[in-house]
Design brief:
Elements lengths: L1 E2 L2 H12 L22 E7 L2 E10 L8 E5 L5 H14 L2 E6 L2 E2 L2 E2 L3 E5 L2 E5 L7 H9 L6 H6 L24 H21 L7 E8 L27 E6 L8 E4 L2 H10 L4 E5 L10 H7 L3 E8 L4 H14 L4
Parallel strand pairs: 4-5, 4-10, 10-14, 12-13
Antiparallel strand pairs: 1-11, 2-3, 3-5, 6-7, 8-9, 11-13, 12-14
Helix pairs in contact: 1-6, 2-8
The structure holds zinc ion (ZN).
Zinc ion binds next to loops.
Length: about 325
Amino acid sequence: MKYFSKKACYAVIILFVSLIQTYSQNQNSGLGQPAITPTRSTELRIFDTPFVVNTYEQQNGAKKSPITFIVLHHFEQTGLNLVKDIIKQRRSGRLVELVSKMEDKPQRYLFFKFNEKTICVDPNRIFSEVGDWETLKKDHQTDTENGSRLSDGSFSTSKCENKTISEFRDQNNPITKQVLTEIKNFSENLKAVFLPRRNDEIVVAVHNNTNTAALWSDTSISIKEFVQGRGGDAKQTEAVYIFNEQDLDNFFIVSKRRLFDKLFQRDRTFNIAIQKQDPKPDDGALSIFCGLKKINYINIEAQHDVGKDRQREMINTVFDLFPPR
Ligand SMILES: [Zn+2]
Protein backbone atom coordinates (compact mmCIF):
# COMPACT_ATOMS: atom_id res chain seq x y z
CA MET A 1 0.00 0.00 0.00
CA LYS A 2 1.05 3.56 -0.62
CA TYR A 3 0.34 6.81 1.11
CA PHE A 4 0.11 10.07 -0.71
CA SER A 5 0.10 12.45 2.22
CA LYS A 6 1.73 12.76 5.59
CA LYS A 7 -1.68 13.27 7.12
CA ALA A 8 -2.84 9.91 5.83
CA CYS A 9 0.19 8.26 7.48
CA TYR A 10 -0.74 9.91 10.76
CA ALA A 11 -4.27 8.59 10.54
CA VAL A 12 -3.07 5.10 9.84
CA ILE A 13 -0.73 5.04 12.84
CA ILE A 14 -3.58 6.01 15.11
CA LEU A 15 -5.80 3.39 13.60
CA PHE A 16 -3.36 0.56 14.26
CA VAL A 17 -3.84 1.02 17.99
CA SER A 18 -7.57 1.48 17.87
CA LEU A 19 -8.54 -1.33 15.57
CA ILE A 20 -11.98 -2.60 16.29
CA GLN A 21 -13.79 -5.73 15.29
CA THR A 22 -17.12 -5.37 13.64
CA TYR A 23 -19.55 -8.00 12.65
CA SER A 24 -19.53 -8.72 8.98
CA GLN A 25 -22.87 -9.18 7.44
CA ASN A 26 -22.20 -10.12 3.88
CA GLN A 27 -25.38 -11.27 2.39
CA ASN A 28 -25.51 -12.92 -0.95
CA SER A 29 -28.47 -13.01 -3.16
CA GLY A 30 -29.34 -13.45 -6.73
CA LEU A 31 -29.40 -10.03 -8.27
CA GLY A 32 -32.05 -9.92 -10.99
CA GLN A 33 -34.35 -6.96 -10.92
CA PRO A 34 -35.10 -6.32 -7.25
CA ALA A 35 -38.80 -6.45 -6.54
CA ILE A 36 -39.08 -3.36 -4.43
CA THR A 37 -41.57 -0.60 -4.94
CA PRO A 38 -41.18 3.05 -3.98
CA THR A 39 -42.70 4.16 -0.71
CA ARG A 40 -43.04 7.62 -2.16
CA SER A 41 -42.78 9.22 -5.60
CA THR A 42 -42.35 12.90 -6.20
CA GLU A 43 -42.49 14.66 -9.54
CA LEU A 44 -40.10 17.57 -10.02
CA ARG A 45 -40.00 19.69 -13.14
CA ILE A 46 -37.51 21.70 -15.13
CA PHE A 47 -39.82 23.96 -17.13
CA ASP A 48 -42.38 21.52 -18.57
CA THR A 49 -40.22 18.40 -18.37
CA PRO A 50 -41.12 16.14 -15.43
CA PHE A 51 -38.64 13.99 -13.53
CA VAL A 52 -39.69 11.32 -11.06
CA VAL A 53 -37.86 11.06 -7.74
CA ASN A 54 -38.53 7.74 -6.03
CA THR A 55 -37.93 7.10 -2.33
CA TYR A 56 -37.59 3.51 -1.10
CA GLU A 57 -37.67 3.37 2.67
CA GLN A 58 -37.44 0.23 4.78
CA GLN A 59 -37.65 -0.04 8.53
CA ASN A 60 -37.73 -3.16 10.69
CA GLY A 61 -38.90 -2.35 14.22
CA ALA A 62 -38.45 0.87 16.12
CA LYS A 63 -34.86 1.53 15.09
CA LYS A 64 -34.22 3.63 12.04
CA SER A 65 -31.20 3.58 9.74
CA PRO A 66 -29.28 6.88 9.65
CA ILE A 67 -28.37 6.22 5.97
CA THR A 68 -29.88 7.81 2.89
CA PHE A 69 -28.55 6.41 -0.37
CA ILE A 70 -28.81 8.70 -3.36
CA VAL A 71 -28.38 7.66 -6.99
CA LEU A 72 -28.19 10.72 -9.22
CA HIS A 73 -27.05 9.10 -12.47
CA HIS A 74 -29.94 6.90 -13.43
CA PHE A 75 -28.00 4.92 -16.02
CA GLU A 76 -25.62 3.66 -13.34
CA GLN A 77 -27.93 0.73 -12.78
CA THR A 78 -25.37 -1.64 -11.22
CA GLY A 79 -25.18 0.34 -7.99
CA LEU A 80 -28.83 1.34 -8.08
CA ASN A 81 -30.03 -2.26 -8.24
CA LEU A 82 -27.56 -3.34 -5.55
CA VAL A 83 -28.91 -0.76 -3.12
CA LYS A 84 -32.50 -1.75 -3.87
CA ASP A 85 -31.61 -5.37 -3.28
CA ILE A 86 -29.71 -4.75 -0.04
CA ILE A 87 -32.21 -2.42 1.64
CA LYS A 88 -34.90 -4.97 0.83
CA GLN A 89 -32.87 -7.83 2.37
CA ARG A 90 -31.98 -5.85 5.45
CA ARG A 91 -35.37 -4.19 5.72
CA SER A 92 -33.51 -1.03 6.61
CA GLY A 93 -32.32 2.17 4.99
CA ARG A 94 -33.57 4.76 2.58
CA LEU A 95 -32.80 5.15 -1.12
CA VAL A 96 -33.64 8.18 -3.22
CA GLU A 97 -33.52 7.55 -6.97
CA LEU A 98 -33.60 10.33 -9.53
CA VAL A 99 -35.17 8.86 -12.65
CA SER A 100 -34.01 10.11 -16.04
CA LYS A 101 -35.15 8.24 -19.11
CA MET A 102 -35.40 8.83 -22.81
CA GLU A 103 -37.38 6.37 -24.88
CA ASP A 104 -37.63 4.31 -21.69
CA LYS A 105 -33.84 3.99 -21.40
CA PRO A 106 -31.97 5.16 -18.26
CA GLN A 107 -29.83 8.23 -18.78
CA ARG A 108 -26.82 9.88 -17.17
CA TYR A 109 -28.08 13.42 -17.75
CA LEU A 110 -31.32 15.26 -17.19
CA PHE A 111 -32.77 16.17 -20.58
CA PHE A 112 -35.34 18.96 -20.66
CA LYS A 113 -37.06 21.04 -23.29
CA PHE A 114 -36.45 24.77 -23.49
CA ASN A 115 -37.60 26.85 -26.49
CA GLU A 116 -38.11 23.61 -28.39
CA LYS A 117 -34.51 22.58 -27.89
CA THR A 118 -33.18 19.70 -25.83
CA ILE A 119 -30.96 20.90 -23.00
CA CYS A 120 -29.05 18.55 -20.76
CA VAL A 121 -27.42 18.99 -17.39
CA ASP A 122 -25.42 16.66 -15.19
CA PRO A 123 -27.48 15.98 -12.04
CA ASN A 124 -24.24 15.73 -10.05
CA ARG A 125 -23.24 19.28 -10.97
CA ILE A 126 -26.35 21.19 -9.92
CA PHE A 127 -25.56 21.75 -6.23
CA SER A 128 -24.10 25.25 -6.57
CA GLU A 129 -24.63 28.28 -8.79
CA VAL A 130 -21.28 27.89 -10.50
CA GLY A 131 -22.00 24.20 -11.08
CA ASP A 132 -25.38 25.01 -12.65
CA TRP A 133 -23.73 27.47 -14.99
CA GLU A 134 -20.85 25.15 -15.92
CA THR A 135 -23.11 22.23 -16.78
CA LEU A 136 -25.57 24.45 -18.67
CA LYS A 137 -22.96 25.90 -21.01
CA LYS A 138 -21.22 22.57 -21.58
CA ASP A 139 -21.92 20.56 -24.70
CA HIS A 140 -21.38 17.23 -22.87
CA GLN A 141 -19.95 15.73 -26.06
CA THR A 142 -16.78 14.67 -24.26
CA ASP A 143 -18.93 12.44 -22.11
CA THR A 144 -20.53 10.63 -25.02
CA GLU A 145 -18.43 7.53 -24.61
CA ASN A 146 -19.15 7.30 -20.92
CA GLY A 147 -22.78 7.96 -21.66
CA SER A 148 -23.09 5.09 -24.06
CA ARG A 149 -20.82 2.52 -22.49
CA LEU A 150 -22.41 1.94 -19.11
CA SER A 151 -25.82 1.06 -20.34
CA ASP A 152 -26.51 -0.15 -23.83
CA GLY A 153 -29.62 1.92 -24.14
CA SER A 154 -28.14 5.20 -23.03
CA PHE A 155 -28.92 8.11 -25.27
CA SER A 156 -26.16 9.82 -27.16
CA THR A 157 -25.26 13.21 -25.78
CA SER A 158 -25.36 14.48 -29.37
CA LYS A 159 -28.97 15.18 -28.43
CA CYS A 160 -27.79 17.94 -26.09
CA GLU A 161 -28.34 21.30 -27.76
CA ASN A 162 -26.90 23.51 -24.99
CA LYS A 163 -24.22 24.92 -27.27
CA THR A 164 -26.74 25.99 -29.90
CA ILE A 165 -28.26 28.59 -27.56
CA SER A 166 -25.91 31.55 -27.84
CA GLU A 167 -27.39 33.26 -24.77
CA PHE A 168 -25.96 30.48 -22.60
CA ARG A 169 -22.48 31.86 -23.21
CA ASP A 170 -23.34 34.81 -20.96
CA GLN A 171 -24.15 33.95 -17.35
CA ASN A 172 -25.95 37.28 -16.91
CA ASN A 173 -28.13 37.07 -19.98
CA PRO A 174 -31.83 37.13 -18.92
CA ILE A 175 -32.56 33.91 -20.81
CA THR A 176 -29.61 32.17 -19.16
CA LYS A 177 -30.71 33.47 -15.78
CA GLN A 178 -34.20 32.14 -16.35
CA VAL A 179 -32.85 28.67 -17.05
CA LEU A 180 -30.40 28.81 -14.14
CA THR A 181 -33.24 29.75 -11.79
CA GLU A 182 -35.22 26.78 -13.01
CA ILE A 183 -32.27 24.42 -12.45
CA LYS A 184 -31.67 25.89 -9.01
CA ASN A 185 -35.30 25.39 -8.01
CA PHE A 186 -35.11 21.80 -9.20
CA SER A 187 -31.95 21.26 -7.15
CA GLU A 188 -33.51 22.79 -4.03
CA ASN A 189 -36.59 20.59 -4.37
CA LEU A 190 -34.43 17.51 -4.91
CA LYS A 191 -32.33 18.29 -1.84
CA ALA A 192 -35.52 18.66 0.19
CA VAL A 193 -36.33 15.04 -0.67
CA PHE A 194 -33.03 13.39 0.24
CA LEU A 195 -30.95 15.57 2.58
CA PRO A 196 -30.85 14.44 6.21
CA ARG A 197 -32.62 16.48 8.82
CA ARG A 198 -30.20 15.57 11.61
CA ASN A 199 -26.46 16.07 11.61
CA ASP A 200 -25.75 12.51 12.78
CA GLU A 201 -27.32 11.08 9.63
CA ILE A 202 -25.32 10.23 6.53
CA VAL A 203 -25.70 10.68 2.78
CA VAL A 204 -24.29 7.82 0.71
CA ALA A 205 -24.01 8.50 -3.02
CA VAL A 206 -23.70 5.45 -5.25
CA HIS A 207 -22.01 5.69 -8.65
CA ASN A 208 -20.57 3.43 -11.31
CA ASN A 209 -17.67 4.14 -13.61
CA THR A 210 -15.98 2.49 -16.55
CA ASN A 211 -12.60 0.82 -16.57
CA THR A 212 -9.78 3.33 -16.26
CA ALA A 213 -7.83 2.96 -19.45
CA ALA A 214 -5.75 6.10 -19.09
CA LEU A 215 -4.78 8.21 -16.12
CA TRP A 216 -5.97 11.45 -17.71
CA SER A 217 -9.07 10.12 -19.35
CA ASP A 218 -12.13 12.40 -19.12
CA THR A 219 -14.59 9.61 -19.53
CA SER A 220 -13.73 7.46 -16.58
CA ILE A 221 -12.79 8.03 -12.98
CA SER A 222 -10.59 6.08 -10.60
CA ILE A 223 -8.94 6.70 -7.24
CA LYS A 224 -5.87 7.96 -9.11
CA GLU A 225 -7.80 11.08 -10.07
CA PHE A 226 -7.59 12.11 -6.40
CA VAL A 227 -3.80 11.81 -6.12
CA GLN A 228 -1.88 15.10 -6.05
CA GLY A 229 -0.28 15.84 -9.41
CA ARG A 230 -2.16 13.12 -11.22
CA GLY A 231 -5.82 13.97 -11.48
CA GLY A 232 -8.37 16.74 -11.57
CA ASP A 233 -10.04 15.84 -8.29
CA ALA A 234 -6.79 16.16 -6.29
CA LYS A 235 -7.35 19.87 -5.63
CA GLN A 236 -10.32 19.09 -3.42
CA THR A 237 -8.63 16.14 -1.74
CA GLU A 238 -6.88 16.09 1.63
CA ALA A 239 -5.45 12.58 1.49
CA VAL A 240 -5.73 9.36 -0.45
CA TYR A 241 -5.29 5.79 0.69
CA ILE A 242 -4.73 3.23 -2.06
CA PHE A 243 -4.51 -0.49 -1.54
CA ASN A 244 -2.35 -1.76 -4.37
CA GLU A 245 -4.09 -5.04 -4.90
CA GLN A 246 -7.51 -3.46 -5.24
CA ASP A 247 -9.05 -2.33 -8.53
CA LEU A 248 -8.52 1.44 -8.74
CA ASP A 249 -12.03 1.89 -10.10
CA ASN A 250 -13.57 0.78 -6.80
CA PHE A 251 -13.22 3.38 -4.09
CA PHE A 252 -14.84 5.56 -1.44
CA ILE A 253 -14.82 9.35 -1.20
CA VAL A 254 -15.57 10.68 2.30
CA SER A 255 -16.28 14.19 3.50
CA LYS A 256 -14.69 13.76 6.94
CA ARG A 257 -11.64 12.12 8.48
CA ARG A 258 -13.87 10.38 11.01
CA LEU A 259 -15.61 8.53 8.16
CA PHE A 260 -12.24 7.46 6.75
CA ASP A 261 -11.26 6.17 10.19
CA LYS A 262 -14.36 4.01 10.44
CA LEU A 263 -13.93 2.49 6.99
CA PHE A 264 -10.20 1.93 7.45
CA GLN A 265 -10.63 0.28 10.82
CA ARG A 266 -13.07 -2.08 9.25
CA ASP A 267 -11.13 -3.07 6.14
CA ARG A 268 -7.72 -1.88 4.97
CA THR A 269 -8.22 -3.07 1.43
CA PHE A 270 -10.56 -0.24 0.52
CA ASN A 271 -9.32 2.62 -1.63
CA ILE A 272 -10.42 5.86 0.06
CA ALA A 273 -10.13 9.56 -0.81
CA ILE A 274 -10.70 12.10 1.97
CA GLN A 275 -12.11 15.37 0.72
CA LYS A 276 -10.75 18.64 2.10
CA GLN A 277 -12.78 20.33 4.80
CA ASP A 278 -13.03 23.45 2.62
CA PRO A 279 -13.08 21.85 -0.83
CA LYS A 280 -12.36 24.12 -3.80
CA PRO A 281 -13.13 24.71 -6.55
CA ASP A 282 -16.84 24.21 -6.09
CA ASP A 283 -17.94 22.37 -9.23
CA GLY A 284 -21.51 21.81 -8.09
CA ALA A 285 -20.96 18.15 -7.20
CA LEU A 286 -22.93 16.73 -4.27
CA SER A 287 -19.68 15.77 -2.51
CA ILE A 288 -18.56 19.40 -2.49
CA PHE A 289 -21.96 20.64 -1.32
CA CYS A 290 -21.98 18.14 1.56
CA GLY A 291 -18.37 18.97 2.44
CA LEU A 292 -19.09 22.69 2.64
CA LYS A 293 -22.25 22.07 4.68
CA LYS A 294 -20.44 19.61 7.01
CA ILE A 295 -22.86 16.85 6.10
CA ASN A 296 -21.62 13.28 6.59
CA TYR A 297 -21.08 12.08 3.03
CA ILE A 298 -19.71 8.88 1.53
CA ASN A 299 -19.50 8.15 -2.17
CA ILE A 300 -19.35 4.49 -3.18
CA GLU A 301 -17.78 4.32 -6.64
CA ALA A 302 -17.33 1.01 -8.41
CA GLN A 303 -16.74 -0.18 -11.89
CA HIS A 304 -19.90 -0.94 -13.80
CA ASP A 305 -20.75 -4.63 -13.93
CA VAL A 306 -17.38 -6.24 -13.03
CA GLY A 307 -17.20 -4.14 -9.86
CA LYS A 308 -20.59 -5.37 -8.72
CA ASP A 309 -19.43 -7.82 -6.05
CA ARG A 310 -17.03 -5.28 -4.60
CA GLN A 311 -19.72 -2.60 -4.62
CA ARG A 312 -22.04 -4.95 -2.75
CA GLU A 313 -19.35 -5.40 -0.09
CA MET A 314 -18.87 -1.64 0.12
CA ILE A 315 -22.60 -0.99 0.56
CA ASN A 316 -22.89 -3.71 3.20
CA THR A 317 -19.86 -2.30 5.01
CA VAL A 318 -21.48 1.12 5.23
CA PHE A 319 -24.66 -0.50 6.52
CA ASP A 320 -22.69 -2.37 9.20
CA LEU A 321 -20.77 0.74 10.28
CA PHE A 322 -23.90 2.87 10.64
CA PRO A 323 -26.52 0.52 12.10
CA PRO A 324 -30.14 1.44 12.84
CA ARG A 325 -30.65 3.15 16.17
ZN1 LIG B 1 -22.34 8.73 -11.46
